[in-house]
Fold these 3 entries.
Entry 1:
Amino acid sequence: MRILITNDDGIHAPGLKTLHKIATDLAGPDGEVWTVAPAFEQSGVGHCISYTHPFMVAQHGERSFAAEGSPADCVLTALHDVMPERPDLVLSGVNRGNNSAENTLYSGTIGAAMEAALQGIPAIAMSQYFGVENRDLDDPFECAATHGLDVIRQILAAPQTSETADYRLFWNVNFPPVSAKDHKGVRLSAQGFRRDTDFGVEPHMAPSGRRFLWIKGGPQTTPTLPGTDAADNLAGYTSVTPMRADLTDHATLAALKESFGQ
C-alpha cells in the first residue's frame, strides 16, 4: 500500500511521528509512506489553499517533504508534484487536540482529508483529544498510537457506499482524552455541537503599546448530545464519523421545493 501522511501541526510535530509509525505498520514491508506536511504550524486554516500566492517545497528525506502552505496545499503538492504515483490512502494527523464537534469546521487536519476526498482518494483524519487524564503522560498520543492502526483497519474493511459520488467520503477519527489502557472502544458518532461555548477573541497589549487580538476557543470539556463525537470522546471512546464536503441541507431543499413551485 502507498500512503501519504500530512497534518496541520507542522512537519516536526510529535503527532506526525505517531502517524508515520501507524502508516508504516499499515503499509507493510512492501509498501511506501510519503510525508508532505506544512513547514510550520497551520492549525485552524480549514480547507484553505494558497490560491493567490506560490509557496516553496523542501525535501527533508527520501519520501519526506515540507511545503510552506496549508494542509490542503500539501495534499495537492503530493498528488501533482512530489509523488510519482497517486497514493492508495491519505492519513492526516495525528492532530494535537480534538477535531470533534464545531472544531471540525476550522481544522486543517480535516481540510487535508477533505482535499484528498475531492481528489478521489480515500482519506482519514485523526486527532488526539487532550485532557487531564492524558496531557501529562510521557506520550500524550499514547491512545492514538496504541489503537490507531486497528481503527484504520476497521474503517478500510467496512462497506464503502456511494464511492462513485461526486463528493467522496472521508473519515474523522478522534481518540479520547485517556491513556491507552483506559480506552473503552470505538463508536460510530455523528458530528456534535458544543452548546454555550464558541470561538471568540481576547485583546492583549504588546510592550510597544500596540493592541493585538488572540483567537480564543471555548471549553473542550463541554459534552455534546449523546451519540455524537465529543460526548463519546469524553466518555472514553474513539469516535469515527463519516463525512462529505457537500454542504447542501438536502432535507430543507426537498421541503422548500413545493413552496418555491418546483
Entry 2:
Amino acid sequence: MTANGPMFTVQVPASTANLGPGFDSIGLAVSKYLIVDVYEDTGWRCVAKSPALEGTPTDESNLLFQTALEVAYEYKKTLPYCRLEVESDIPLTRGLGSSASAIIAGIEIANILCDLQLSMQEKLDIASVMEGHIDNVGASLYGGLVIGTYDGQSAALVQQSITDMELVAIIPSYELKTSDARNVLPGQLSYAEAIQGSGVSNLLVAALLKEDWKLAGEAMKRDLFHEPYRTPLVAELQVLKTLPSHSDIYGYALSGAGPTVLCFVRKGAGELISKELKEHFPSCAVEGLQIVNEGVQVVFNTVTHLKG
C-alpha cells in the first residue's frame, strides 16, 4: 500500500441480462461501473462515496463483505480486516446488475486478500451459485456478450466482443425487486410453448453472433419466457411498444428483471435516439450506454480510477 492510496482497486462493469428470449442465459456488460478501493484497516468498514449507494450497509453485512467472507470461508481462509471505499453509478434494483457487480467485486477482494489464485472458471462458478444464474455475473466478469448456462452446480459460457452497436437506457425512477418480477412468471410452460420459446432464443443467439442486429432485434420482441408476464409491471416498456418503428433502433428489451428498458441502436445514433426518447419518457433517466468488452479489472497501489 502506498502512503496516499489503496492496496488495490477493483472495477466491475454493470450488466444487462436476458435480452428478450435469452432468459437467465444471455448477458451484456455495459458502461456503468462499481469501483472499490481496498485499504488496510483495523476492522471491516464500507464507505459509500456515491449517491446511488446511500443507505447501503457500512459493516460486514454489506454484500461486498458478505461475498468476500463467504469465499474466504469456503477456502478455509481468514479475510483480513479492510476498509472499502466504494463508488458506483449503477442504479440499485433497476435491472442493471448492481448485485452481480458487487458479487464479482467481493470475489476479487477475497481472491487477492486471501491469495486464492482463482481461475476465471472458478470465479464464474462461485458467482453463479451466489447469484443463482449466469448472465449478469458472467458479463461483469468477462465483459462483452456472454451466452451460457448454469445447472445449479457449474457454469459454462461463450464470450463475444461487440463493437458496432450502442445502447440507450430508459431508467425509471421507481424500483422493481427481482423477487417481485420473478413472482409473476408461470410455474411451467407447455411443451409446444417451450419449443417455440427456445427456437426464438436460438435465433437470437445466432443473430447476435452473426452481428445481424435487425434480426436480433426482431427475435427480442418475440420472447415467450418473461417479457409477456412482466410488461404489465413496466409502463415504459408498454409505451415503447406503441411507438412507430425507427430505422436506427434495432430492437429493445427489458433489462434483466427491469424496470430499465434498453434500446439496441445503430453505432453513432445513441445520442440522437436518447434526445428523441426523452420526449416520450420525461420522468425517466434516458441515456446512451456503450457495450464494454472488458470485464472486472484490478489495479494495485493506485489512486487512479480505471473507468472508461
Entry 3:
Amino acid sequence: MSVLDNWDNWKNFLGDRLHHAQDEGMNNDVINDLAYQIGGYLANQVDAKNEQEKVLADLWSVASKEEQHAIANMMVKLVQNNGSAH
C-alpha cells in the first residue's frame, strides 16, 4: 500500500519528512518552497488516491501561483503535528 492511498498515512508521512527537515536545520522558507514544488509535482504527475487528494488537486489546478504557495504553506501547518516525531 502506498502512503498516498490513505489520507492519515499521507499526513503522517509528510509530518515525518517535515520533522526530519527541521531536525537537519532546514528553515521554514525552504520547507515551504519545497512543499510548493512537491504540490505542483503531485498535482501534475500523480493521480489522486483518495478524496482529500482529489480536492487538493482540484484546488491546485485553479489556483494562482500565489494561492498555490498558500495551499503548500497550509499543508505544512496541517502536518506539523503528524508523524512519529511530535
